[in-house]
Write a structure and sequence with these properties.
This protein has about 300 residues and is α+β, with helices and mostly antiparallel strands. The chain folds into 2 domains: about 90 residues, Phosphorylase Kinase, domain 1; about 180 residues, Transferase(Phosphotransferase) domain 1 (Transferase(Phosphotransferase), domain 1, Orthogonal Bundle), CATH 1.10.510. Helices cover about 30% and strands about 20% of the residues. It is built from 10 helices and 11 strands. A 6-stranded antiparallel β-sheet has the order 1-2-3-4-6-5, covered by helices on one side. It has a 3-stranded antiparallel β-sheet with strand order 7-9-10. β2 and β3 form a beta hairpin. α2 packs antiparallel against α9 and α8 runs antiparallel to α9. The longest helix is centred in the middle third of the chain and has 21 residues. It is globular and about 60 Å long.
Amino acid sequence: MTETLLPQTTAFTPPAKAVVPPAPGEVITSLLTGNTYTMGDKIGEGYFGVVFSCVDFWGNDLAAKVLKPTDTYDQVKASAEAEFRKLVVMRHPNITYIFDAFEYRHTFYIITERCYCPITQLFSLENFSGLVWLMPIGRCLLQAVHYIHLNKYAHQDIHLGNVFAAFIKDEMCPTEPGVIQFKLGDLGVAKLFNELDVTNTLAEWIRPPEAIDSAEFGPIDHRIDIYHIGLLLLQLAYSQELRFSRDEILAGRPRDMALKLPPPYNFALEKALRRHVAYRTESAMELWHDICQSQLPMIPSDKESGQ
């Protein structure tokens, strides 16, 4: 599949600047699947790509991620193929579903399901109470991360903008909203466990302590995702978006805030947000177990927890 994964329209290899974004209403056909996509408006943008709404031949509401020319043509193509392979491996009900990938006019497209919104938008709801949403979102997100870790990958970029609310369509009542689920998206920077290093973590505001000072806080491993989930659930628990400075992260400010929460969230989240990797929650399953605990152990002191 590596040679035909993203079939080209010609043999010409252009510079990266030759990228041509889609126009609203344009119909694009994938040579890989034969499916057609009617392109819509821009609905999002990240460091590596721009996302457009689209509808396929079957009437599915989808999202087309168009990769930006952040590097040479060959390297951008390699990144597209790598992300496609990761999404195929990571097919799970709580991970955004991959439908297609192709190259069109020297531009690389990755087609996934279209979710309703990132959960950042929940915070704008009137009288928003994050604790009401914490368990449903946590259950979906932790199942996704558990599956990713089983495949020896770390996501590395879990935050409110990469977790999505999605409505599952009822085929018998297609005009109704459907049932809500939550899904983890954007596996573009996910890496195998043995490929993790400090250069993989891009966003300063979610950089865990070990990515700042590994000599003090421990090695970078899959528990980077546990720390990121801890930050996300902490924001839900406080019903507000939080940003921590480098100094606050090194000082353990997120864990201090977790300790002020009611049980069981105080124990579960302070453990996930411990600065020293060796004392942090080991797995997604362990974090879910801690959240669901009815009889909680005594929260250890800073010295005992190695926080």
